Amino acid sequence: MAGAAQQTPHLARPDFFLDLDQRLKFAQVILAARHAAFVSRVTSSFRTHGIGIQELAPAEALVRVREAMYPETADIDWKPILPGSPVTPLAPEDDDATAAVIRRKLNGPTRGGAPFMALIQADDEWYEQMLVNSLGPVELWAFSTSPQDVALRSRLYQRVGPAEARRRLARVFPDGSAKDEIERRKEERQRGGEDEARARMSVVQDLADELVDGHGLGIVLRRFEHEHGEAVAAE
């Protein structure tokens, strides 16, 4: 019709014709590309300012972290199993129960621990059992990435050293995080009229002081050291 506005044809989204598996693979490709671009920007920024930086593969990075935390393991041939790692289970292929556990329940480490399939040989018989390798509070604190925990841990690292900081944090917060306590105290300060950023900074500093000097929540450290004949190390 003359004078009628031309309509732009509707273009379907690229994933419209893809099934779920194809869409997941497509998303993985996009995420991998974005991650590679991010890593490139970070390394370039460091090098621009004259700071040497080395990019490590995830498996190698985990090995380095493990050796830094536990130097006695430096000579042990240990390799982490990550999502996508080629793993060949020793279980029979026709064992539906074992195959189901491997496919559906070995989903990587969580706060509750890292599940794995144990294959045990006893008296010429093989036994299979899914177990969970639970992380202790020290390890949880070493790997915590929440901003609240990182801020508190960093302050203690500077004041008492990494090993002692993790020991104190694990004793006072055995669940591996001080996030709930920090948020609770921050909200109290905000109700008193303090702005959020200043409140959070003050709370983290107060907690660090308590764990260094052994007062407040840090009194737990004094009781523990008294029972074991030690002393809370000051700065």
Q: How would you portray this structure in words?
A:
The chain has helices at residues 20-48, 58-69, 96-104, 137-143, 147-160, 162-172, 179-191, 196-213, 219-227; strands at 114-122, 125-133. Strands 1-2 form a two-stranded antiparallel ribbon. Among the domains are: 96-134, no CATH class; 138-227, no CATH class. 52% of the residues lie in helices and 8% in strands. A hairpin with a 2-residue loop joins strand 1 and strand 2 (125-133). Helix 5 crosses helix 8. The protein is globular, with a radius of gyration of 25 Å. The protein is mainly alpha-helical and 235 residues long.
Give a summary of the structure in a few sentences.
The chain is mainly α.
Strand content: 5-15%
Rg, Cα atoms, Å: 25 Å
- The strands making up the biggest β-sheet line up spatially as 1-2
Order of helices and strands: HHHEEHHHHHH
Instruction: Give a quick account of the main beta sheet: strands, pairing sense, barrel closure.
Output: 2 strands, antiparallel
In whole angstroms, the N-to-C terminal distance is 85 Å
Number of helices: 9
Q: Write down the oligomeric state.
A: single chain
Helical amount = 40-55%
**Number of extended strands:** 2
The SS-based structural class is: mainly alpha
Q: Based on CA inertia axes, which overall geometry fits?
A: globular
Low-pLDDT sequence parts: 1-6, 8-13, 89-94
What's the pLDDT, averaged over the residues?
76
